Amino acid sequence: xxxxxxxxxxxxxxxxxxxxxxxxxxxxxxxxxxxxxxxxxxxxxxxxxxxxxxxxxxxxxxxxxxxxxxxxxxxxxxxxxxxxxxxxxxxxxxxxxxxxxxxxxxxxxxxxxxxxxxxxxxxxxxxxxxxxxxxxxxxxxxxxxxxxxxxxxxxxxxxxxxxxxxxxxxxxxxxxxxxxxxxxxxxxxxxxxxxxxxxxxxxxxxxxxxxxxxxxxxxxxxxxxxxxxxxxxxxxxxxxxxxxxxxxxxxxxxxxxxxxxxxxxxxxxxxxxxxxxxxxxxxxxxxxxxxxxxxxxxxxxxxxxxxxxxxxxxxxxxxxxxxxxxxxxxxxxxxxxxxxxxxxxxxxxxx
Length: 351
What we know:
10 helices, disordered N terminus
């Protein structure tokens, strides 16, 4: 497959000499987005950074296992490469001002690069432009920003994630098979990943007998999603499917069991967390796509180091997504997507 650039060629050659344990997460099949569209390639990171760069990461929150997996990927890769890392979390998707303040603090304290898991797709554009003016490398990862002032993007399109789980549903209920009612919980309104996920999901259902009866937006905190699911069930008594974020799916499993409705309404998630894997193993959830969360975070650190060490090309790549089904869990490597069970958040990596 095509190699991304000469800098990555050097990384691939260096990686060949690594011990197996150090190299076990790569090479990775990725999709590379460029001026001519999207193409498949193979990615292998550099062996190590040339110096202990100071990198700062900004996350929307650490309230669920998805972002814990991001934290794990970031800190593991910082340790592997030999760079310093500070991780900030804003406490939720309603806290854009706090995220802006935390990123500003990163700049003030001398960060060489900032990795942004954005709360808002466009709300950070002016700040990113200012970081660019200051010569600070900015990497867009996980959620996506609209700014063109970033030096790299480590992203799996959530439009693709929404499309994948939507296609799974549409293929189960093709046109003429009989209408099924679907409630959809894409996540917090305004977040770019949520709008993208919604676009992909809605488009994938077109022409099928899976009919979208209810769409409810809200923060990915468990309490918020629990209330949204309960409200939807109150409004629509004949739902066949609840589809949404991982906290939505976990909340739905809890609510349906409490109401004696488990097994009567099917639940699907459009990304994977440890809780989703547990529910899939128990047969409560049939399928969910993975965006290889841990690998996206690792690649974001790699892109920052590459840019700091002279790679001026703007790379936009992400692991190839796939749908994981409950009857094929044995073929799925959870290390690409979830943090180990014993992992607790790490906020600082120092060399």
